[in-house]
Input
Amino acid sequence: MAEKLPTDKAVKNARVQGNGRDSVLRDGGGLEMRVYRAGGKIWQLRYQHAGKRRIMRIGEYRGVSLKDARRAADDAHKLLDRGIDPQVHAEDESAAQQEAERIARMNRPPARPLLMYSCSGTRPSCHNARMGPICSELCRRTCLPSSVMWR
Output
């Protein structure tokens, strides 16, 4: 006789068994929810690829519903049917996304100038006074009616 698949209610009410050990609620096809003594509930997928048994974490129960976990397991099985390890595939996608974000940060436009009030000509009121004569000379040579200082 086939084992009944868990429902949303059964998943929500899943608890650690009376023996004090972590419990497992199996959905079939390798998908299971591990319920920890501390109260956490984690979806994971057990599978075999290239002769090795692996466990791929799908996510925590609060963020991943039963429906989402089943969809993720189906996607992983499709990758396995094509001969691709789903855990390695997920790691590669994550690395590619991080690289794209890094490149996007590098390609930001330069900082906008912060406009300051104009110089008096003899005393550099728009620059840092701690720079002393260097700032004074720079101010006399380069200040326009409104000084520009970069952030």
User: Anything to note?
Assistant: The longest helix spans residues 86-106. Residues 114-126, 129-134, 144-151 have pLDDT under 50 and may be disordered. The two ends are 71 Å apart (CA to CA).
